[in-house]
Amino acid sequence: MRTDTDHLKPQQRRLLERGVEIIRQQFAEAIKGKAWERQKQGRILKIILYGSMARGKAVLDLSSGYRSDFDLLIVVSHPALAEDHWWYGAEDGLNLEESLGPTRYPYNIVVHDIADVNDQLRRGRPFFVDINRDGIIVYEFDTKELAKPGNLSAEEIREEARGHFEQWFERSLGFSKTARYHVSENMPNFAAFDLHQAVECAYHCLLLTLTLYSPQLHKIDKLRAMAEGLDPRLISAWPRKTRNARRPFDRIRRAYVEARYSKHYRITKEVLAEATVSVEILQGIVNVVCEEWLEQR
């Protein structure tokens, strides 16, 4: 795999290096002092930049507010280290770094253990094969190469992708239907939660259809970043230039937890209506992108 980042602008290289530094520091802090049987062997083995930054196609569009991500695959030494709680500090630090200015780029991390990454490669899973082909190693403790990628036939990929598309797109539409019912019953918090689920399913649908991979998480901001990196047409579903424009997505993002458990969560009819329109636009784009992909395979 490549190790050079010469194609990045100086500012991008500095921000990338800063992100890697934050990840390593926060992981070291998270694991320090833990009574974990494999603590001494618990390591970050590799950090790999992939996606638009790795391909030299990063976008920073101040007119729309859209910014490409630093997509980073973190490869760890043990499956337990891929669990979310080890990475809360790193995500907080990366979010703070992103917030320091409008010309900063967000960071998006996915974590897998080395055995899983190698297994996915041997099985020819497209997400990991693409990273192995186009990714750039930006930190490496273990210099051992990853497994040689295997091959899935085009028919196998298309059949699995079609199954994912039919399953997850139907789920997304189902949650939208439930949201409309809750709106009619004047239950906006329930409707907001339903819209969150509709968005989550739509992004899982696209990611699984196009790459046969989607991380097991409910954070729609992370899923959005990954999906928009695959097809920029998705960007138009959620305006983000101003704070007011970003409000519908933000309220829906927070609804997964707060709409169910916090008595302080509120969403106005106007914001709920705007979010509903954006979800419908998103679903329409996802449908087009997935059908196009399936027809071309």
Q: What can you see in these coordinates?
A:
Strand 2 (60-61) and strand 3 form a beta hairpin. This protein has 2 domains: 10-140, GMP Synthetase, Chain A, domain 3 (2-Layer Sandwich), CATH 3.30.300; 154-296, Up-down Bundle (Four Helix Bundle (Hemerythrin (Met), subunit A)), CATH 1.20.120. Helices cover 57% and strands 10% of the residues. Helix 9 (243-261) crosses helix 10 (269-296). It has 297 residues and is of the alpha+beta class. Strands 5-4-1-6 form a 4-stranded mixed β-sheet, with helices on both faces. A two-stranded antiparallel ribbon has the order 2-3. The model has no long low-confidence stretch (mean pLDDT 94). The protein is built from 10 helices and 6 strands; from the N terminus they run αβαβββαβααβααααα. It has helices at 10-31, 52-55, 88-98, 114-122, 126-134, 154-184, 188-211, 220-230, 243-261, 269-296; strands at 44-50, 60-61, 66-67, 70-76, 107-113, 136-140.
